[in-house]
Each structure stands twice: as C-alpha cells, then as structure tokens.
Design a protein that fits this description.
single chain, alpha+beta, Alpha-Beta Plaits, 2 domains, four-stranded antiparallel β-sheet, two-stranded antiparallel ribbon, 5 helices, 6 strands, elongated
C-alpha cells in the first residue's frame, strides 16, 4: 500500500518534467530526459523487490516463554539438531518466541513440526509468519 503513495508522486513528477522538457525549434520536438526520473524508477523497482522477497508463509513455533535464558537454550538446541533450517528468536512483549523454518505451505511446516514434537514435548505449532526467501531458491522453485 505504501509503495502506491511513492509511485503516484513519482508519476506526477514525470509528467510535469516531460511537459517542461519539450522545446520547439524548426517545427521539431526535442525531449530532454531528466536523470532524476531514472533514479525514481530504480527506487520503485527496489521497493517492489523488497515486497516480493518477504512473502507470507509459515514457521514452526517450539517455545513461547517469558524467560530469555530458556528461549536462548531452545534456539541453541534447535540450531544443533536441525542446522539446515533458520532459527528465529522473536520478542513480543512479554514473551520470547522460538520459531524455525521459512515455509511457503502449511504442509511443509507440518512435516518439520512432526519431527520437532519429539524434541519439544510441551507443544509445537505451525504459525503464519512473514518468511525470508533466498533468491536462488525462489528461482529454482518457480521453474
């Protein structure tokens, strides 16, 4: 939503600049391109790619506690037992939440949840989350 507010002023600026950059001489029109337009376009492309890199998905939550030491110990245990998955320690007052993985589908997250339930018998849950996507992986999955 926010990138729409950035794009509209940039688009209006483009039209005003192009309209002023026209010079009539000998019946021909000469259009002078302002370098700032190219900079605005590059910035908009960057904003759009950031929005695509962090799509909604799922993670597996193994612990929610108000004790930081307990959360850190759980994260360490996860990192040692499952080094192929990214592990996250999030703080949402007053709780520390330990989550693992970046999954596009609930089914993928459920597979990991089933493996983790032996390590964390208190309860392991699949939760919706904004995930981190590696650009290389994304390209492979799309093809």
């Amino acid at each position: 939503m926010m990138h729409k507010f950035i794009f509209l002023p940039a688009l209006m600026f483009l039209f005003v600049t192009v309209a002023r950059a026209q010079e009539v001489s000998d019946g021909s029109i000469k259009v002078v391109k302002d370098g700032r337009i190219e900079a605005l376009i590059k910035k908009q492309v960057y904003v759009n790619t950031l929005a695509l890199r962090n799509p909604p998905g799922f993670r597996v939550q193994v612990l929610s506690t108000n004790k930081r030491n307990e959360a850190t110990a759980a994260k360490t245990k996860l990192m040692q037992a499952f080094p192929d998955y990214r592990t996250y320690l999030d703080y949402q007052a007053p709780y520390f939440k330990v989550r693992v993985g970046d999954f596009r589908s609930r089914e993928e997250a459920t597979e990991l949840r089933n493996k983790l339930s032996n390590f964390f018998p208190a309860g392991v849950f699949v939760v919706p989350s904004i995930i981190n996507v590696t650009p290389g992986k994304e390209m492979i999955n799309e093809n």
